[in-house]
Design brief:
mainly alpha; Ferritin; 7 helices; 69% helix; globular
């Protein structure tokens, strides 16, 4: 899959690449495949039901007004992640490998936010979600690299769960494709970070039980 962001397998130096790369290329897809397919199927079913009552046979390509709200929230989550990774990188807990990984993931979130901003145009919020930043900021100031990595894993899992929910609610095909491409890569982020966090249990590395974030109503 072509992405605007750097390949995360290059995030660590050469001596760490075998550890990170294998998990990045394969295991990251396992954690989201089932939930993503379920969400897409649910969205398709909803579209089919709507089609039966409105005589519309295909879903729209461009986002609806409701889609724009969801996609704007997705961009705010990405910009929140960018801000939080900057917070971690401004501290002293990360070693050279940790800095390389965190900088690469930060840049990936910037690329995703930029893609969503370009897609939405003038209706894009172009700002982080203050609640997401404030609720995670202390964890991204942790004193050890392992604790920072654990905070980042939780954030990536939450972003993945949030985007998976959004895919299931979107009507426009183009927006759904963009969010799906982002969430699959972000699931890989958590796998990479598990090395920095010292997580060795396979279930812990692949299971995502995070609660999806919801945009504010009104």
């Amino acid at each position: 899959m072509d992405m605007d962001s750097p390949d995360i397998s290059t995030a660590a130096p050469a001596d760490a690449e075998p550890r990170l790369g294998r998990r990045l290329l394969g295991a990251g897809l396992i954690g989201v495949a089932g939930s993503l397919l379920t969400s897409i199927a649910a969205g398709a079913a909803a579209t089919t039901t709507a089609a039966a009552t409105t005589t519309t046979t295909t879903p729209p390509l461009r986002p609806t007004a409701d889609d724009q709200v969801l996609l704007g929230f997705a961009q705010a989550v990405e910009l929140s992640a960018l801000s939080l990774y900057d917070t971690a990188l401004s501290g002293t807990a990360l070693d050279d490998t940790g800095k390389s990984v965190f900088a690469t993931l930060r840049d990936a979130h910037r690329a995703y936010a930029n893609s969503l901003g370009a897609f939405l145009g003038k209706v894009a919020p172009d700002a982080p979600d203050a609640d997401v930043v404030s609720s995670n900021e202390a964890a991204f100031k942790a004193a050890t690299q392992a604790d920072l990595a654990k905070a980042a894993i939780a954030l990536e899992n939450t972003a993945t769960a949030t985007h998976t929910d959004i895919v299931g609610e979107l009507q426009g095909i183009d927006g759904a494709k963009l969010i799906a491409s982002i969430l699959i890569i972000e699931a890989r982020h958590a796998i990479v970070l598990s090395d920095l966090a010292g997580v060795t249990d396979l279930d812990a590395r692949l299971t995502n039980d995070a609660t999806a974030l919801k945009p504010k109503k009104g």
